[in-house]
Amino acid sequence: MSDRVPVLEFRNVHTHYGPVHILKDVSMQIFPGELVCLLGGNASGKTTTLKTILGMVVPSSGDVLVDGEVMTGRPTADVVMRGISMVPENRRLFKRMTVKENLEIGAYLRDDDDVEEDMEKVFDMFPRVKERLGQKAGTLSGGEQQMVAVGRALMSRPKLLLMDEPSMGLAPILVQQNFDIIEQINDAGMTVFMVEQNANMALSIADRGYVLQTGQIVLEDTAENLLANEDLRRAYLGQAD
Amino acid sequence: MNQMPTRRSATDLDWDRVRRWGIYAGLTMAFLSSIGMVESLDKRLIVDPILSLGFLALLWVPVAFGYAATYEEAKEGMAAPEKGERDLIGGLAAGLIGGLFFVAFIAIADAVDLRGVFPRIGPALIDLLTFGRGTAVGGLLWLMISGLLGMFGGLLHVLPVRVRRAVTNALTAVFLVALVEIAVVDIFESLRLTVISDWIYAKNGGVTIAGAIVVGALAALSSVRSEGDAVVRFRTRYATMEGDERKRFNLIAGAVGLVLAVVLPMVLGGLTNELLANVGLFLLMALGLNLVVGYAGLLDLGYVAFFAVGAYTTAILTSPLSPKWTPMLTLDFFSIEGWVVMVVVVAVAALSGLVVGTPVIRLRGDYLAIVTLGFGEIVRILFLSDWLAPAFGGAQGIRNIPAAVAGPAEINGTKPQTIFYLVVIFVGIAVYVAWRLYHSRIGRAWAALREDEDVAEAMGVETTKMKLLAFITGAILASFGGMIFAVKVGSVFPSSFKLIVSIIVLVIVIVGGMGSIPGVVVGSLVLIGILGGPTQPGLLAEFGEFKLLIYGALLVFMMLRRPEGLWPSVQRQRELHQEEILQDAWLKAEAAADSAGER
Predict the structure, then answer these.
(1) Residues of B in contact with A75 (CB under 8 A)
(2) Closest CA–CA distance from residue A155 to any residue of chain B (Å)
(3) Which of A108, A109, A115, A157 should be substituted to probe chain B, the one whose Cβ sees the most B Cβ atoms within 10 Å?
(4) Do B167 and B297 reside in the same domain of the chain?
(5) Fewer CB atoms inside 10 Å of the end CB: C or N, chain A?
(6) Based on the domain organization, do B202 and B259 belong to the same domain?
(7) pLDDT of residue B2
(8) Is B401:B314 a contact under the CB 8 Å cutoff?
(9) Cβ distance B478 to B307 under 8 Å?
């Protein structure tokens, strides 16, 4: 594995909000085609990790590398341009804009002529989205909104898709559907980095996982091993011993 | 599913509501009288000799409040409220209650000398309000008038839609014809058709009775022939036009507009041209602010600063009396010198947009509004300050700004036609720029920014750059306004750039419809054209001292009843009626499920 260049790498990243130390010496590697999840409870630094990847928060020390190139301190637009795209927590569509406008914003930084083509690809994956094209995104059901959010993220032709808490705020059946979508995208060759609280669900589809606790990576292993890990089971899977 | 509406008796009314609105009506009439509105506006006649603007300011109250007193909301999925004699009784009652309060007000004002507190309540007012017949007769008359008008307000609910539209259209038409008196007289005079205008308008102003009847009848007739609300119909029609047809329509509309813009100033007199030039000037600023507030969602309350910067830059570059720098350039649009002036104005405006924008870019919502408000005042106070007086002339400002030149023509305030032409050209440019930006990638980025700044950033929208761009484009458009203003007035003083200018431009944008170019045009025409700007008179010049009161009342009314503005952008309408749309969608889904079940 180590001879390949990781799509995304964290090298000893420390992040502060003002004087508060959020991420403490975080190192991670995500390789092409992988589905990696980052597990952690509330206030463990999951969202900060995503913001750091996107350059919305600049690490106080350490480096963020995309495709082996140092991106620390570069503006978000540059990072997006390098092929990193996010599906935000709770989907956060532009509710009062149409589905089409939402998808167009996803392709905001592209200046090639294949945007229409990629939109067709999104429609192939989610035929429902095509039916709703002229509708305001806010009028869609939760499941449909999730499809648009994923579609919007895919419109930038990413190499790495970041998923922020895909199970958040959805009914159990939709959560399942959502994870199916993620798995499907990953099977099609997309590298996915998923931040989740629902460890059971996340590990069931992931290849590998990191566990973040108060800003530190405390565990890192393959998904099977993590699922079998006693400490993790106690902490996240709600199993009393 | 067929529900028979249960018969309701004639007195089955929401009496609480009737009483409330009746009291409101009485208090409103008393308020309008006590601030001197009736007296001051009495000189402007609407229909000679029976109705003045002053009395109109009172008489609409029982009608509107009588209408409101008997208003019942039509609830979706429920039987429509049944209308009938009940509404007449309710309107009459509300009118009578209002009249009673108003008569009480007149009696008190007559008995007690209130001039110490309310300087406008004096014998002259009492005399006017009692029609010179004493309190007893006057009071009885008011009770009757108010009751009847209230009943008329209630009647509006009962009338069939067509009849109601005919009545309201006739009344509106007469009022509008009286409103545009100066412009119409101008036009007929230049066409040498004073016969017609002399017949419509009375000598001492206002429409003649015969003229009013003809105008009203024509308006009523035309509305009976047509189906539904013309504006709504036009907008739906326009929205459903396909590419080519729409292009053709836009072309024709543009050509008509161009011809009007060229011909109108020639046939209109000085006063009307002046008025239209003011409308254009505020429209130019409103188009700029619309980019900032309507498109990018940045609430800027200090917008007047850029207007001031444009005006002062022009003054310094062109005036021989500029205290420090006197390049004395001529604003000649056909020579290099004029273009140098414009380039410098744009550059200075862009720079000031950048200077104001950079520190506030991280602020959101209320905080942004407060800080920009401060910046607007800072700019005015700097121009006013003794410290900078050697450069900007302090309170004296800069005088003797020479006329602008376009070939053989001189453009200055003494020839309002020329200013009007200049304004039209710049408004044309501004509309084009705003329209192109809206439909570009930048417009999309602004929309995303307005919706959800964080997500927009995560999608790669360069939020800082886009916000600054909005500020700078807005600043440049305002500075053009300032440039024209300087040429028009011939001098600039700090007192021309008060906070009220920012507020009025913002009100234009809000009342017209945020993010909508036609809305901003309608907003400027209605607010600046009819009511007038902060210091500029409108068609209802008599409103002068009550202008801000009416602005405020209008703003409150709009926020409550029509928050999307007079001519909303499609997007804003969506935003503000989201719930209704959602409910519609839900109902449709229900209906579909029902019909599927029946099958």
Answers:
(1) 462
(2) 10
(3) A108
(4) no
(5) C
(6) no
(7) 47
(8) yes
(9) yes
- The CA distance from A79 to B58, in Å, is 64
Residue with tokens 């939109």: A119
The answer to the question of residue B291 being in a domain is yes
Q: Which CATH class is domain A1-81+195-241?
A: alpha beta
Quick: pLDDT tens for A63-86. Answer: 999 999 999 989 999 999 999 999
Q: What would the pLDDT profile of B250-265 be if each residue is shown by its tens digit?
A: 889 889 988 988 888 8
B456 to chain A: closest CA residue: A105
CA distances (Å), B512 to each of A224, B286, B412, B501, B567, in order? 61, 10, 29, 16, 6
Q: Kindly determine whether residue A106 and residue B457, on different chains, have CB atoms separated by under 8 Å.
A: no
Whether a cis peptide bond, with omega within 30° of 0, leads into B518 is no
Residue A43 at interface with chain B, using a CB cutoff of 8 Å: no
Residues of A in contact with B296 (CB under 8 A): none
Q: Do B199 and B294 fall into the same domain?
A: no
Q: At which residue do the structure tokens 């001492």 appear?
A: B204
Angle, helices B441-451/B416-438, rounded to nearest 10 degrees:
80
Last residue of a domain, one of B228, B249, B278: B228
Contacts of A141 in chain B (CB under 8 A): none
**Is some CB atom of chain B closer than 8 A to the CB atom of A127?**
no
Distance CA(B578)–CA(B236), nearest Å, equals 19
- Mark yes or no for CB contact B455/A80 under 8 Å: no
Which residue on chain B is closest to A50 by alpha carbon? B458
Nearest to B571 among A85, A96, A108 (CB): A96
Range of the domain at B170: 162-228
User: Which one has a higher pLDDT value, A237 or A50?
Assistant: A50
Least confident of A14-28, B108-122, B305-319, B575-589: B575-589
- The C-alpha atoms of residue B540 and residue B178 are separated, in whole angstroms, by 10
One-letter identity of residue B358: T
What H or E segment, with its residue span, contains residue A38?
A: strand A35-39
A/B interface, count of CB pairs below 8 Å: 72
Test A139 with B447 for CB contact under 8 angstroms. no
**Residue in B191, B193, B209, B189 with CA at minimum distance from that of residue B201:** B209
Q: Return d(Cα B462, Cα B576) in angstroms, integer.
A: 27
User: CA angle B320-B326-B330, nearest 5°?
Assistant: 65
pTM for this entry: 0.87
Give me B360's structure tokens.
């506030």
Q: Is the per-residue pLDDT at B45 higher than 50?
A: yes
Of the candidates A183, A159, A222, the one whose C-alpha atom is nearest the C-alpha of residue A8 is A159
Comparing CB atoms, the residue among A75, A88, A136 nearest residue B455 is A88
pLDDT digits (tens, 9 = 90+) for B542-563: 888 888 898 999 999 988 888 8
How many domains does the structure of chain B reveal?
Answer: 4
In this structure, the answer to whether residues B221 and B254 fall within a common structural domain is no
The answer, for B362 touching chain A at a CB cutoff of 8 Å, is no
Distance between CA atoms of residues A6 and A27, nearest Å:
12
